Amino acid sequence: MNELFFIQHEVMPALLRGMIISVELIIPSAICGLCIGVVMGVLRVFGGPVLSRIADTYVMIFRGFPLVVQLFIWYFGLPHIGIYLSPFVASVVGFSLCSGAYHSEYIRGALLSIKRGQLLAAQSLGFTKTKMLISIIIPQAFRRALPGCGNEIIYLIKYSSLAYMITCIELTGQGKIIASETFKYTEIFFVVGLVYLALTTVASWLLLRVENRLRLPGFDHYSM
Amino acid sequence: MKEKPCVLRVENMTKRYGQKVVLQDATLSVDEGELKVLIGPSGGGKSTFLQCINFLVTPDKGRVWLDGKEILPNHKRDLYAYRQCVGMIFQDFNLFDHLTALENVRIGLTRVRGMEKEESKEKATVELDRVGLADHLHKYPAQLSGGQKQRVSIARALAMDPKVILLDEPTSALDPELITEVLAVIRNLRARGMTMVMSTHQIGFAREMADEIIFLEDGLILETGTSDKIFSCPKCERTKEFCSKIVELYGNSR
To answer: I need a labelling partner for B235 at 20 to 30 A (CA). Which of A122, A156, B124, B254 fits?
Structure first.
């Protein structure tokens, strides 16, 4: 009886609070990450010699540094140069930048798959480079990149658990606190894992809906 | 007879890829309402020549005038304005795959010319109707046949009210039945007085329609003349050889 009371009044509310923080971390990070990814991917392919090199360097660094190290730099490192970020903001910044680097790779691949003829046709109509990218190239590339980008978002949901390392107490953080108070590591983390599973399942379903929504003849999947 | 004004003039167009010269000192002048046809073997420089004319390929040398005004490709603004006046039709259509036929024709009007939504829709509908596609406005390129795609691409070019249209082997990717429908559209354009430069292997069509035929091989213009002259008594041995081969292959099919 005691046990049930404890779960109802201590464990569940704490995990729920954690889950809400997690979702609040994931949504802006996913959106910002995707935007950064699109911009960086486009710059890497169409940015000309200078901008593409800058974007390449960005991707090299943010894919190369372990994410925890990046978070430590944002949270513990920046105060040395007078910039103080809250644990939440530091996490969102860290996740967005890291996620953007990975997204840019999917976007880059999709951009490279657009046939040169599409560019020639747009140029021959008098499109400027920017307008061509916005109206012709990106809408096509985005559709092709979506499965990969979705994968990155699913991955983001799980690496958002690293936020607790810089004291942003989200789902994993709450789980760890309760577990160390109660020594019920197995049960608590099993529940935490299930919550992540639920989040990724919902995200996959949403992403599939977006894919279906954007599906066009010529961009559809071929069923065998 | 009154002289027709010269619409497009190209002088000494030269393009190299590394050591290989793909186009050398090609010169061309097209008067209003004329159809000039480029013939010659594949890889002879026809596509490069056409793409150099609107600077889709940057020539190493060469000057272009439209309506007597020289185009300087380094002036981006002028270049974009110039390209709006020069329609281009590609061998493999190059329709925008994510847009319907109607949107394909509209997008240049709205995004490049800044036309109002309703107006652009009306104009695009008229242009598609004119190439016989009024029933296919809302189909995507993947749902259209090759001939229909090419007609959409012609409508897309025409919607911009170009002064001249460049056609780069517009029927080469089509099977014989579809070739006829596309050639009919081009014939119709000619009757309406559109100025055109076209590269093709459709010798019969060239013979019938062209004001002047230009034979291009290995990047060089070997011979220029009226179709009668080119087909009946070509000066150059190579032109004769090419013409007889291609007639043998394709017949005089229209």
So the answer is: B254
